[in-house]
Specification:
- This protein is mostly helical and 172 residues long.
- The protein has one domain (2-66, 74-159).
- The chain has 7 helices and 2 strands, in the order H-H-H-H-H-E-E-H-H.
- It has helices at 2-37, 44-58, 60-65, 74-78, 81-115, 129-147, 150-159; strands at residues 119-120, 126-127.
- A two-stranded antiparallel ribbon has the order 1-2.
- A hairpin with a 5-residue loop joins strand 1 (119-120) and strand 2.
- Helix 5 runs antiparallel to helix 7.
- The protein is elongated.
- It starts with a helix and ends in a 13-residue tail after the last helix.
């Protein structure tokens, strides 16, 4: 199961990176069209907006897997080790509950968008449901990746230390 979740995180990260590449290509073509013809590429702005949503949410699980989300440990570092780790574990459960709620609400919004065939008006009518669907998909993968952290956090509370490969990355 760990391997499947890890692979899912990797696949979604590749999808997010592909969206970045598509955004760059669309923007470059749009700029070239403006320079050459004086007009822009129809729908480039609208498509880029939808791709940006996918970039943000499809990359969540991979960032969690690599433990590279921004975190502030000022309080937990000031506490005794086990208390700090217990607080981090409690925070993990709060995040999991919150993300579960986010999945439900954004999933309903994506389903509604698909059902009513919601479109983004502009030069082209771009369907909104793919961008809306990227949000719960990204959060589902993030939730699964976060659930993998629970056993390690429980171990840390019990023993008073984390494995070296679990520690968050320090940015200097």
């Amino acid at each position: 199961m760990i391997r499947i979740i890890s692979r899912l995180s990797d696949i979604l990260a590749v999808c997010a990176a592909t969206c970045v590449l598509l955004m760059m290509l669309l923007t470059s073509i749009d700029i070239a069209m403006r320079w050459l013809t004086g007009g822009s590429l129809a729908g480039a702005h609208e498509i880029t907006e939808s791709l940006m949503v996918a970039v943000v949410y499809l990359g969540l699980a991979y960032t969690q897997k690599k433990r590279e989300h921004v975190s502030l440990s000022l309080l937990t570092d000031a506490l005794p080790v086990r208390w700090g780790m217990t607080l981090r574990l409690a925070g993990q459960f709060i995040i999991i509950a919150l993300v579960g709620w986010i999945i439900w609400r954004t999933g309903l919004a994506a389903l509604r968008s698909f059902t009513i065939n919601e479109v983004r008006f502009g030069l082209l009518q771009i369907p909104m449901w793919p961008a809306r669907a990227a949000i719960p998909i990204g959060f589902i993968a993030f939730l699964l990746q976060s659930l993998l952290d629970i056993p390690e956090r429980l171990w840390a509370v019990k023993t008073g230390h984390l494995r070296a490969d679990f520690s968050p990355k320090v940015v200097s």
